[in-house]
Design a protein that fits this description.
By secondary structure, this protein is of the alpha/beta class. Helix content is 40%, strand content 15%. It has a single domain, classed as Rossmann fold. It binds NADP nicotinamide-adenine-dinucleotide phosphate.
């Protein structure tokens, strides 16, 4: 249709480094205009510069997922620049402090739990709900929540981390609730697990590259209209809750 913007826009939160940066690059290579959501001006500008140099149509979006004001301003910017949002990847996440038994359940520091939930769960809800009006304007909107199999109650993998692991269990649960609430819309919302990836998050100890970790998010962001909704997936298929 004449006058309709055919270029799809994707927002990736925490896109300045690690898996988020790789997701931004991957979606950019598929032809999406990518909003690089990041809270730090310098790191954001640097990432946008690197993406543009690689031929990606990227723009920086100031975004701290723990701030209502920042998230509202980001939504206003996306509305002004793109008019709608086709893809939202909620990738920003933190592990939380672990010193002094802070994430052993027997000595759990509840401030650490609050901090981790504020980013990994409330941040996702904050950003998603601010962007929903823009997503609803897209033809085939997709929401991807970057989770972890550490949040799988069936698998219970990785070290004991009683703030981080439950934050991903709750993120999975919230993803399912969104899927139920949005069931009569064209929005597909799913959770993805990137595997154990070499990023700052893991002290670069992970066995997978950020590009490999990004693959599942890119797949869920580009699902066909008859694709799954309300599931939890990695590269191999369904991850048990
Ligand atoms: P990372 O390298 O530490 O990157 C995390 C990103 O999130 C950074 O861009 C960081 O920005 C951003 N971020 C943190 N708090 C934020 C906030 N309040 N507002 C906006 N951005 C914020 O971690 P990663 O390994 O790429 O992890 C990305 C996602 O994958 C996370 O959700 C993580 O839980 C999940 N995951 C990772 C692994 C793994 O093995 N790496 C495994 C399973 C799941 P700054 O640079 O400003 O800190």
């Amino acid at each position: 249709m004449e006058g309709v913007n055919e270029t799809k826009t994707a927002l990736v939160t925490g896109a300045n480094k690690g898996i988020g940066f790789a997701i931004a690059r991957g979606l950019g290579e598929l032809g999406y205009t990518v909003a690089v959501g990041a809270r730090d001006d310098v790191r954001r500008d640097e990432a946008v510069g690197t993406l543009r140099a690689a031929g990606v149509d990227a723009f920086g979006l100031a975004l701290d997922v723990t701030s209502d004001e920042s998230v509202a301003a980001a939504a206003a910017t996306v509305e002004r620049t793109a008019g709608r949002l086709d893809v939202l990847v909620n990738n920003a996440g933190i592990g939380g402090r672990t010193d002094g038994g802070a994430q052993d359940p027997t000595t759990l520091d509840l401030d650490v739990v609050r901090t981790v939930l504020d980013t990994n769960v409330f941040g996702v809800v904050r950003v998603t709900n601010a962007m929903l009006p823009l997503l609803r304007r897209a033809e085939s909107p997709r929401i991807v929540n970057m989770s972890s199999d550490m949040g799988s109650l069936t698998r219970q993998t990785g070290p004991v981390l009683a703030a981080y692991a439950p934050s991903k269990s709750m993120l999975n649960s919230i993803t399912a609730q969104y899927a139920r609430s949005l069931a009569d819309t064209n929005i597909l919302v799913n959770a993805g697990c990137p595997g154990y990836v070499a990023t700052e998050f893991t002290g670069f100890n992970g066995v997978r590259t950020p590009g490999q970790g990004a693959a599942i998010a890119i797949r869920l962001a580009t699902l066909p209209d008859d694709g799954p909704c309300g599931g939890f997936f990695n590269d191999e298929g369904v991850v048990p809750w």
